[in-house]
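Bit of a strange request maybe. I'm writing a small parser for structure token strings and I need a real example to test against, not something I typed by hand. Could someone generate the tokens for this chain?
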Amino acid sequence: MAYGDILSGILDVQLVDATGAWSIHSEKVADGIVAIIWSDGSNHGWCRTYPIAADGTVGLLIEELEFDPTFYFARQHNIVEVAERIWLVMYRGPLTKLKAVTISIGADGTGIAVKDSLTTALACPTACEYAAKKGTTNTCYVAVWYDGDQDGQMATFTCDSDGDNITLADNWEFEPVKAYLPQVEYISGDIFAISYNDSLGVGQISTVAVADDGTITELLINTQEVDAVNNSLNINMAKIGNGDLVFLAYSSTPGGAGLMATLTIDNLGVISAPIDTGTYDVFDGSGDKAIKLGTSSDVSYVMIYYFNTDDGADVIRTFSVAADGTISAEIDSLVIQDVTADAASWAAEVRVNLWVFPYSANSDTYFNTAKVDTVQEVAGGQGASMADTLVKAALI
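Reply from user aminoacidic:
Good idea to test on real output. This should exercise your parser:
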């Protein structure tokens, strides 16, 4: 058994909603308790909790909450953890304006509740599926999306640690021409990185600085082309390792090959040229997301969860990345489902090495369970104990 190994096949399959599915998230509530947050066929926002046994068996539904019952308004959202068992959900709300709500859940999966809600005046006619939290203790959150003209938009929020008092702190049009499928990742200090596809179809990463109170203090500090050979779509970023390394997963074109790369972004926002590149799927890397599995002895481990429309399957593949940014050959892989490749979605580790993989199949909402060997990281050391690993993932 080694880091990145797939330790099981599919252990259990759970149908969540047969009315449709958008933006399916899984979030760890406590050991063995998962929350599934999604939009149904009418684009209402829902949250359900389930118990997950140590062998991966999914138990009966614990509780559910329709957190936004407004037709067509809770579609294409993203979620950031505010504090233990409290999440900030940002999405296209009433009259296609950007909306944010906070949701709390008890440790046993009961007591799902909306803590606070804010509908902004910012136009959000498309998807708002990517957001990032500043560090682990600050209360500043960054959301990115593209508007009706595909211009890149960015907004920052703050809220109390208990989820109350959501405030729109700042906003900015970071790309006035085109920023298709933007995504955001927290780097370090005040630095966030935004990836997007520009007006020429070229993948770019830009850095910005955001203060703890949400004020955007530096605009477009640095910009770096992701791939000089291939167009780059859906560029998903994962900050890895003990320094400045960032792992990228992206597709070359819609329905094109799944590619990956590494580069560095320092605490001043300076971006390096790509260090290493590779291909994780020669046929199709649609909807990819890069998931950090942890770092041990300066070697980082990542998992890519994506859907392959060529094979009609949702797949996970694992890799290691050396301290110098060199990407290994594939460690292991597993087909999560092969009914139809509608969309893989945001995965979560709910017990040590036990993962939940949400997806839509035939437009219905499901999740499967499987085991992946994950580096268990704690403060003061890498891979030192069996502590929980927090995972960040994103997807269109």
